[in-house]
Write a structure and sequence with these properties.
The protein is α/β, with parallel strands linked by helices and 166 residues long. Helix content is 39%, strand content 13%.
C-alpha cells in the first residue's frame, strides 16, 4: 500500500505532498534565508543604512541579521567614504570573514570615491580596489529602499550560486 502503490501512478506525485530538489538548492535556500551582515559605516551613507535596519524598512524580514564580528558574518556592507587609512582595515575585516563571503558597496563614495576623490589625495577611488564587490548600490546617499534592492540582488546571486569548486 502507501508509497509502493503511488509509484505505479506518476500523476499521484504531482498532486501529493512531495518536494523534489537538489542538495545544492536546499543549501542555497538556507543560506539566502539567513544572511548575517556586518555594517561598516564610514560617512553619511551609514545613516541610511541604520534607517534600513529600523522598523520602517525592516531588513530582518529578508533574514538579514546584524552581527558585530566579521567571523560570524556572511556579508559586509561598506557605506561611505573609504580613505586610504581605512582601506587596510576594510581589507583585514574582509579577510577575517568565513567563506562564502559577500560585499555590498553602498553609496557613491564607496562605489567610486564620490565627490571627494578628485580633490582629496586620501580618498580611495572605490572599495573594489581592495576587496571584491558583489553588489553596488548607487546614490548619494542611497535610500533604504535601494539597499533593500541590493540585498534582493545578493539573495538572487546566492540562490543561483554553485557550491562546487569545479
Amino acid at each position: 500500500m502507501g508509497l509502493l502503490n503511488k509509484l505505479d501512478n506518476i500523476e499521484s506525485f504531482e498532486t501529493g505532498n512531495f518536494v523534489f530538489s537538489t542538495v545544492e538548492s536546499l543549501l542555497n535556500w538556507g543560506r539566502l534565508s539567513s544572511i548575517w551582515q556586518m555594517g561598516f559605516g564610514l560617512a553619511c551613507c551609514a545613516i541610511e543604512f541604520m534607517a534600513a535596519n529600523a522598523s520602517n524598512f525592516d531588513m530582518m524580514r529578508f533574514g538579514v541579521i546584524p552581527r558585530p564580528s566579521p567571523r560570524h558574518s556572511d556579508v559586509i556592507i561598506i557605506s561611505g567614504t573609504v580613505t586610504l587609512k581605512m582601506a587596510t582595515r576594510v581589507k583585514r575585516l574582509y579577510e577575517q570573514m568565513p567563506d562564502p563571503k559577500y560585499v555590498i558597496s553602498m553609496g557613491s563614495c564607496s562605489n567610486c570615491g564620490g565627490p571627494y576623490w578628485e580633490h582629496g589625495y586620501h580618498v580611495l577611488k572605490g572599495v573594489d580596489r581592495v576587496i571584491p564587490v558583489d553588489v553596488y548600490v548607487p546614490g548619494c546617499p542611497p535610500r533604504p529602499e535601494a539597499l533593500l534592492e541590493g540585498l534582493i540582488r545578493l539573495r538572487d546571486k546566492v540562490r543561483h550560486q554553485s557550491l562546487s569548486k569545479a
